[in-house]
Fold these 3 entries.
Entry 1:
Amino acid sequence: MSQLTAVDATFLNAETSTTHAHIAGLAVVDASLCPGGRLTAGAVADLIRERAHLAARPLRRRLAQVPFGLDHPYWEDDPAFDPRRHILEIGLPAPGGPGELADVCAMLHERPLDRTRPLWEIVVIHGLADGMTGVYIKSHHAAIDGVSAAEALAALLDLTPEPREVPADDAEPEYAPSPAGMLGAGLLKAALSPLQTALSAVRAAPYLDEIPGVSQVPGVAAVSHMMQEALGLDEMPRAPRTVAPPTPFNRPIGPRRSFAYGSLDLGEIKEIRRALGGSVNDVVMALCATALRQWLDKRGALPEGPLVVGVPVSLRKPARRNGEENEPANRLSIMTTPLAVHVADPAERYAAVRRDLELGKRRFAISGSDWVRELTEMLPAPLAGPLWRLAQQALPAFSVRPMNLMISNVPGPQFPLYLCGARLHGYYPASVVTDISGGINITVFSYDGKVDVGVIACRDLVPTPSEVIDHLTDALDELRGLARESEPEGLARES
């Protein structure tokens, strides 16, 4: 039995009729090696029944609400857990192409999860071209973050078409405390909440200048810098005073979603990194900068300055280190960085992206900023939900843009994996869009020599995110050409 942290609960509190805080992924698999040459919902259900206990957070746990919403909910094992209740099979008119598959995933992403059951679902999608099968996997962000989602997925996958043997689950079911017990604990926390709020505010004060939106309030930067000096954090680089410009995807979002996916060659990205310097992540962010520049320029909406991007950063410890299980709670922070879409010259744009990311990483390394946790813990549990939903409605109304969009980069394994005997050819993430974080979200996942890209968006604001995928391909061509131009100079320096 465990209780949701304030960060976990925030993903529940943030949900509205237009915002659903679940994360998902589209796996495209070749099911020809499955029994009968077909991946079925029954086979996936049997696999999950056997391996649910291996996931970062067991897939069989549901929410247990505290009376009167006095405290954050608890996790408990669902006594009626049945994987088949979470898995569907649907078919596309064959041969289904990428556009049809993306549209189905977008519609599935619009649907909220049932909070009375464990917060996940899987949809097996048949009828794809070339004999492929799609597997849409969705879980609530309250139950899992990006890194633990990758760990949970790894628990279901194998290194060969032949499934491996796994140890049996001999753990006793865990249940939440009684309503009276939860109520008593909630009353105690409510009494201590003013102290908790004060402590969280003090701990967050040195990092107020990097919290999206908050950093724009007059006087905040001065208070933050004063606290940094008092704590001996003089070496920490100052957070850039960048204001997110208006864009077509920074308007109030609606309930409908659009989705697109594609892949880039990881080897080519590494070659570009070697030629131009920086990291793989620098190249990925530069590709996104170029793609977004093209998308905005096409609509006459290119800003005069950089975009402001939120980059999730995992604070999670290495999984199962020294035989210890990773903590199930969300352990993440957000690093905000300028994204130089306004820079016309490709070389200068790449240099600006690399420089801004390096500054953000140096600051993060010194601060170890955990402002997401501190900010969420400032709010007493009974008030957290209404206040978060009020903020989501109020900020767009006052044209406050904490950021323009989120871009995530999750490293994955560089070897083939199998699901129930079906080879995984690609895994394309789909994350969250909100009024606060922007109406488009780009997530990349490296796997088996590729960088798989998923773009989820509000359909009212970005109806065809496949354009972004096309622009990413163009951006890769541009950087490849830039890398080739730099090769003679690099060779001369080496000699």
Entry 2:
Amino acid sequence: MLNQVDMKAEIQSMPKWLRPSLGKASDISTVQKIIKQRQLHTICEEGRCPNRGECYAQKTATFLLMGPTCTRSCAFCQVDKGHAPIPLDPKEPEKVAEAVYLLGLEYVVLTSVARDDLPDGGASWFVATMTAIREQTPEAKIEVLTADFWGGQAGVGVDKLAVSLAERQRRRIEVVINAEPACYNHNIETVSRLQGPVRRGAKYERSLDVLRIVKELDPNIPTKSGLMLGHGETETEVVEAMADLRKVGCDRITLGQYMRPSLAHLPVQKYWTPEEFDQLGAIAKQMGFSHVRSGPLVRSSYHAGDSI
């Protein structure tokens, strides 16, 4: 494991194209004030997004529902994990709706931590929040970025468990789909070979199933997914992953650079250059993705509203 000196050297050696603009302090404080007053969470802060300065300056944020603690333990993610999540705040949907209204958002992105402890994985919470937003800002478009809605039960045979979980996953997705989001996003995060070490508790095929099920339930809802590059994947593997996404009807894609948040997270294996991202973006467009964002600082919700 790297010591503090090594970690500092690693940060200092980061390519110049990975040093984003911080944005104006006054613009950033406006969003932070609205968020903090309501004790809300955003993936911008919890995930230490490199674009939060730019997004806050544009008075936008991606809301992180159901608390800041995740029941999964992905090795790349900065979001808090490793202990029991907090109880749901019954006023959170209303608070998010107030923030959306005060920020004057036309396009809203709702994501969440994985909540495998909840009976429906949090599907109904997405719907409750969407409903609250539409009551105050009916014209707002709402994109959802969900977990895979997979959970387990103890003491059930393996075959029966697999069928039960698959059916439950589909029903949870259907709950969200029935609320008619403007886009349904679920990230596969990395290529098939690296799912184990990068996405603990998640499965490549299971994530593809999420996107496939969305299209089966409502072919008119755009689907979206993303990969974070830099874990040791090859260009061939990235292209194969994009092809897998197209096979399940995925319409939109984001490709960005993984940036190590701390010593406790996976080290970066490679910094992909802007030119390489441009090349992958061009390949994605050739494959038929209708909306492509590919660049070192691109994240799942980066300029999400540009697609409307």
Entry 3:
Amino acid sequence: MEEDEGERLIPEPGTDLAKLLEYKVYRRRWFILVVICLLNSSNAMIWLSFAPVADQTAQYFNVTLDQINWLSLIYMVVAIPVSFGTTWMLDTLGLKTSLILSSWLNMTGSILRFISILSKYPTWLMFYPLLMFGQTLCALAQPLVIFSPTKMAALWFPEHQRATANMIASMSNPLGILFANILSPLIVKNESGLPLMLGIYAFPASIACLLATLFIRASAPPTPPSASAETSNSEPFLKGMKLLLKNKAYMILLLCFGCGIAIFTCFSTLLEQILCVKGYTNDFAGLCGALFIVFGVVGAFLLGLFVDKTKKFTEVTKINMCLAALACIAFALVSQMKHQNFAIAAASSLFGFFGFSIYPVAMELSVECSYPIGEATSAGLIFISGQVQSIVYIILFQLMTKQMAEAPDVTCALGDNSLLSWRVPNMVMAAILSVGVCVFVVFFHTEYKRLKAEASVTQGADSKLNDDIDNVVETE
């Protein structure tokens, strides 16, 4: 790619002209944003590629549904130890190194997944472990790319575009989940469609790897786009970790929003299994998952524009978390009823609109309440919290299921082996999210430290400029 010249930021009333000469933005930021979106979306497709077709996959490999669920759970298990190293890598080695490594892991894992299923009649002993190994490599790639949006937005985008850039990059992950929910049921009408599905999912992973390797040449632009970008990573990694653990507002966000991430993960992973025992088809479960994501992306777009203008991070997060909890309760109730397609689809849509949409806003909020600690560290620990809680909740929910005596309308491919009642897990899921939301609304309060620091820099520069003008006048 050719080097692009910096674009001068358009002055706003009260903005110091000396600073405008220093802060520039570069067209390359849009290319880096595209690469992150493609990589993030590809990795998410791989993550939940089996969730909408869990019963067919279990039948193909002759394994249990719990073993198929581990193809999704492995992302969470791997993320816990790896994420600490990932945050250090992003904040120390930089965005370029992290994205290239992530793209290679993602591509290699997707190819191994495809190889594992090429045989017409695979056996568990040979092919399931290879499938799991490929899935594990993709899981290693996830933290590297999923922590990148806040870092990329802080380093490459000006203050008035940060939330929008973070939103676009972050929402590419649920878009990948959307594609998985739509494509997997369409491709895998029966178990013989699995090889084609894995081959298709390996293609975008390869394209993302090619673009990242050949065309990302720097972790940061030649000159910073904002005052906060100049001081990014001002705190050493270990010192930053200690400061975060002492930050009350951040710890509340860590636990409560981590709980929200975990519930959304459980919903995406278990949706098909919850609905099939009540007579709903895989296609309908895929539709509900798609509505969950589509409305989440629409909500995130609207919220991203709104908070870029107003900077009301806390208010937006609290209101939407409350509404997401109500939607989760509604889904828990209607999903246990038969022939309620419209109600289930509506509850899934609202859950996505209010729940998924606050992810990029909450990530920006984590940076605001923890500044000047590195963006990858503050966002990464929240993600780790979500992954830890996801593992606990999914295992807990599976233990809470009970074998059903009969289910005449069941659409699960495994028949009697998958007749599990999800009534209790659904209710517990809604209860956990509701408690987390209540704690967050009542106890979370913070000042926006990054915005405050940027404002003080601008005010200081304006004051100095005025003093220089006064001195010139007095001299004359």
